Amino acid sequence: MRAVNKTTVILLACFMSTSLLPGCTNWQKRYNSLLVEYRNMSGQLEYEKAEKARLAERIAQDQQLIQDLQRQAEANQPVADVSGFGPGYDVSYNPAAGTVTVTLPNAILFDSGKAVLKRATSAELDHIYSVLRERYSGKQIDVVGHTDTDPIKKSPWKDNWELSAERALTVARYLIDRGVPEDRIRAVGCGPARPVASNTTAAGKAKNRRVEITVYMRPSG
After folding, report:
1. C-alpha closest to that of 92 among 106, 78, 71
2. Rounded CA separation 158/9 (Å)
């Protein structure tokens, strides 16, 4: 009887241990799955914390830049250095609109009546792109073409509006090719509608023939 009982106990023990093994395996798999999920969530949390810190730093830098630009504008001082574009560039700040604008004369970029850049590589536009990338990343950008009032005669364009729009597109595409996101840039042609000088003189017309690259410091919407 004792022998039978001993054998029975051994058999029961073997049966129980065998029956529990699949359950243990399932629990181990579940544990490993939860552990992987936990590590993924922890990594995502750390990434979001880092992104939040970078965003806060960027906002602080933007606020400081706006304050510096505002101070220069109120003192009627040049903003080229403060803006980051540096000397030699025609830079203006519009406090009401919250925009920084770099103006390039068409003579630097285009031959008369043309919408193709004079050179395959533009040192001026490359410099502007580097500043946009380093100091104005994520900002909305407008590229605006302007002309004088002289009517189109020998060029293939229908009018000055079309010429200014094509020049703006050329500059926008150049910046996009360098790395400006397409959803952050617009090309606009204004033709002769927004002169900055009189069109009665050669010097005034030269000032009106220009491309403006405008950065919006404040979020749109």
Report:
1. 78
2. 101
Helix, strand, coil percent content, the chain, rounded in steps of 5? 55, 15, 30
**Full-prediction pTM beyond 0.90?**
no
Asked if 83 and 192 touch (Cβ cutoff 8 Å), the reply is: no
Query: Going residue by residue through the chain (221 aa), what tens digit of pLDDT does each one get?
Result: 444 455 544 444 444 454 445 556 787 777 777 777 777 777 777 777 776 776 776 777 778 888 888 888 888 888 999 999 999 999 999 999 999 999 999 999 999 999 999 999 999 999 999 999 999 999 999 999 999 999 998 889 999 999 999 999 999 999 999 999 999 999 999 999 999 999 999 999 999 999 999 999 876 54
Q: Find all residues with CB under 8 Å of 92, minimum gap 6, and list them.
A: 79, 100, 101, 103
d(CA 63, CA 56): 11
Rounded-to-integer distance, Cα 125 and Cα 139, Å:
17
